[in-house]
Specification:
Layout lengths: L3 H14 L6 H15 L2 H14 L4 H5 L5 H24 L3 H14 L6 H14 L3 H14 L6 H12 L10
Length: 174
C-alpha cells in the first residue's frame, strides 16, 4: 500500500522462501509494475525478461513481448475501444477478413484486454458469415475456456448448446 521498499522486500522474501510457488508470475508482474512506476527501468526490464523466459506463453508473457508495453498500457483503453469499433464496423459491413485481422492485432497488442471477449465473439461471428462453421465453433469454445464468466459467456454457451442439440448453423450477411 504505497510502501514500495516494503513491498519489494516482501516479494523477494516470498520468492526466496517459496521459489516455485503458484503466485510467482503475479509477483514478477507486480514487481515489474512497481519498478516501472518508480523509474527503476533496469530492474523493470529484468522482471520483464524473467516473465518472458519463465512464463512466455502466459497472458503476461504474450503482452510483455512488446517492449512498449507500458506505453501501450497508458493508451490502451482509448485505443482498444477504437480498435473494437473498427472491427465491429467491419463485421457490420461483412468485411470478415478485416475482422479477423483486427482480432489478431488485438491479440498481439492487448492480449489482457478487458474487452477481449467481445473481440473474440465478433471474430467467431465473422467465421459464421464466412460459413466456416468449424472455426466458428472452435472460436466459441476458446472464448468459453479463456473467459468463463463474462457478459458474452451465456450467449456463446447457449449457441454451442443449441448446436450440440442438433440445431443447424446458417451463415449469412445479417
Amino acid at each position: 500500500l504505497e510502501d514500495v521498499p516494503a513491498s519489494i522486500g516482501e516479494f523477494k522474501i516470498g520468492l526466496k522462501e517459496y521459489p516455485d510457488n503458484m503466485y510467482r508470475l503475479g509477483v514478477y508482474y507486480n514487481m515489474y509494475l512497481i519498478y516501472m512506476r518508480t523509474g527503476n527501468t533496469a530492474m523493470a526490464e529484468r522482471m520483464r525478461q524473467t516473465i518472458l523466459s519463465e512464463f512466455a506463453d502466459s497472458k503476461y508473457g504474450l503482452a510483455m513481448r512488446d517492449p512498449n508495453y507500458i506505453e501501450n498500457l497508458r493508451n490502451m483503453d482509448r485505443e482498444q475501444e477504437g480498435m473494437y469499433e473498427n472491427a465491429y464496423a467491419a463485421y457490420l459491413d461483412n468485411d470478415n477478413a478485416k475482422v479477423h485481422d483486427a482480432y489478431a492485432e488485438m491479440m498481439r497488442k492487448y492480449p489482457l484486454s478487458k474487452i477481449m471477449p467481445k473481440f473474440m465473439f465478433i471474430d467467431a461471428l465473422a467465421y459464421l458469415t464466412d460459413k466456416n462453421y468449424d472455426a466458428f465453433k472452435s472460436s466459441l469454445r476458446e472464448l468459453l475456456e479463456r473467459y468463463p464468466e463474462t457478459d458474452i459467456t451465456p450467449t456463446a454457451s447457449s449457441i454451442l448448446t443449441q448446436i450440440a442439440k442438433g440445431r443447424k448453423l446458417e451463415g449469412g450477411s445479417s
